[in-house]
Design a protein that fits this description.
353 residues, alpha+beta, four-stranded antiparallel sheet, 11 helices, 10 strands, 18% strand, elongated
Length: 353
C-alpha cells in the first residue's frame, strides 16, 4: 500500500510541474539584397530577462515599455541571429511595437540584415530559464514557405536546404501533451473507472478510448487551423477543465462506470481546440495536413506513454485491493478540475499548475 501511495504522489508531483507553454513567433523573409525578420514575443516572457515592470506593480505600462527599448534591442540581437558560411550577420533593429493577441500583449520587433547567402537561423531566448519555450518559425525563400519549431533542444535551423521539419512537430506534440496537466488528468479519469470496477478487456477499452480521443482532437485542431472556428481561449480552457471534472465524476459516483465513447469524442473535440491554441497559427499553408498528422503523432506517442505508466500503477493498485486510494485520487481530480473551471472562467490564476 505504501508503494502505491508513493507512486501516486510521484505521478501527481509531475503534474504540478506542468504549465502553459511559452511561445514566440518568428517570420523570416530571405532575399539576396536584404533579409527581413520579425520576432513576436510576449511581454511576460521579456520580463523574465529584462525588468520591464519598473515599479513592480504587476503591470507593464506603455511608458515602462518605451523606457526599456534599448534593453529590448540588445536582448533581440543576443537571442535571435542569422549567419552565413563566414560569420554571424548583424541585425539592424528597425522598429519595436506592441500588439495584443488572445489576451496576451506581445512585443513585435522588426529587423533586417544586408548579409548575403544566409544559411542558418539561431535562437537562444530563455534557454537557461525555460527549456520548454519555443518559437514557431516561418521562413520564406524564393516564394517557398517552410515551417519550423525552434527550441532549446533545436536552437538552429538550416535555411538553404530548408524543409518542413516533421520531427519537430512530433517532438512538440509529445511535449505539449506531457506538460498539459488538464489533458493528463482527463486521461487518468478515463482509466480510473476501469480499475474501480471488475471491467474486462481493459486493454481493448483503453485502446478504443485513446483512438476516439485522438480522432476527435485531430478534427478540431485541423478546423481551427483552417480558421473555421475561433473561441476565446479562456472559455476553451474552462471547458477543458470542466471535462476533467465530468470524467472524474464517472469514477466517484456510487456505481462507477466507464465514460461513454460518444462523450469521449465530444470531449476530444474540446481538447483539440486547446491543442490548437499553441499551433493554430503555425499549422497552415500547403503542408497543413502533414503538420497536423505529425503533431498528432507526437500527441499520440505522449498519450500512450502516459497511459502505459498510469495504467500500470492503477493495475497494481487494483491487484493490491487499494480501492480507497483510487477513490481518493478520483476525488482529488474532481476538486482540482472544479477549481480550474472557476479559475479559468474568472480569468484568475490561483492554482500552481
Amino acid at each position: 500500500m505504501k508503494i502505491i501511495i508513493a507512486l501516486f504522489i510521484l505521478l501527481l508531483s509531475q503534474l504540478t510541474l506542468a504549465h502553459t507553454q511559452s511561445v514566440a513567433k518568428i517570420q523570416l523573409f530571405v532575399n539576396e539584397q536584404e533579409s527581413q525578420l520579425e520576432w513576436q514575443v510576449a511581454l511576460i516572457d521579456l520580463n523574465k530577462v529584462i525588468a520591464l515592470d519598473l515599479n513592480a506593480d504587476g503591470a507593464i505600462t506603455q511608458s515602462e515599455f518605451q523606457a526599456s527599448l534599448t534593453a529590448i534591442k540588445k536582448l533581440t540581437q543576443e537571442s535571435v541571429s542569422l549567419s552565413n558560411k563566414e560569420d554571424t550577420c548583424a541585425l539592424d533593429i528597425k522598429d519595436i511595437d506592441l500588439n495584443s493577441r488572445a489576451q496576451t500583449v506581445f512585443a513585435v520587433i522588426k529587423a533586417s540584415t544586408d548579409c548575403s547567402q544566409i544559411n542558418e537561423l539561431h535562437y537562444h531566448f530563455l534557454k537557461d530559464i525555460d527549456s520548454l519555450h519555443l518559437a514557431l518559425t516561418k521562413v520564406f525563400i524564393n516564394d517557398t514557405e517552410n515551417t519550423h519549431v525552434l527550441s532549446a533542444k533545436e536552437p538552429t535551423i538550416p535555411l538553404q536546404n530548408a524543409s518542413n521539419a516533421s520531427t519537430s512537430f512530433i517532438y512538440q506534440g509529445i511535449i505539449h501533451i506531457l506538460i498539459g496537466a488538464d489533458h493528463l488528468l482527463f486521461l487518468m479519469t478515463l482509466l480510473l473507472p476501469l480499475f474501480l470496477t471488475r471491467s474486462h478487456a481493459k486493454i481493448k477499452t483503453i485502446a478504443s478510448y485513446t483512438i476516439t480521443f485522438t480522432i476527435a482532437h485531430s478534427i478540431t485542431l485541423l478546423i481551427t487551423a483552417l480558421n473555421w472556428i475561433s473561441l476565446p481561449s479562456h472559455l476553451v480552457e474552462a471547458c477543458i477543465a470542466a471535462t476533467v471534472a465530468i470524467g472524474a465524476w464517472f469514477s466517484v459516483r456510487p456505481q462507477s462506470r466507464p465514460v461513454p465513447l460518444a462523450l469521449i469524442f465530444a470531449i476530444g473535440l474540446i481538447h483539440g481546440m486547446g491543442f490548437a491554441s499553441v499551433f493554430g497559427e503555425l499549422i497552415s499553408g500547403q503542408a497543413l495536413i502533414s503538420q497536423v498528422l505529425f503533431f498528432n503523432l507526437g500527441v499520440e506517442l505522449g498519450q500512450l506513454g502516459f497511459v502505459a505508466c498510469a495504467g500500470a500503477i492503477l493495475w497494481l493498485a487494483s491487484q493490491l485491493k487499494a480501492r480507497v486510494v483510487l477513490l481518493a485520487l478520483a476525488y482529488a481530480i474532481l476538486i482540482i478540475a472544479t477549481l480550474w473551471t472557476v479559475e479559468r472562467l474568472l480569468q484568475q490564476s490561483w492554482m500552481p499548475f
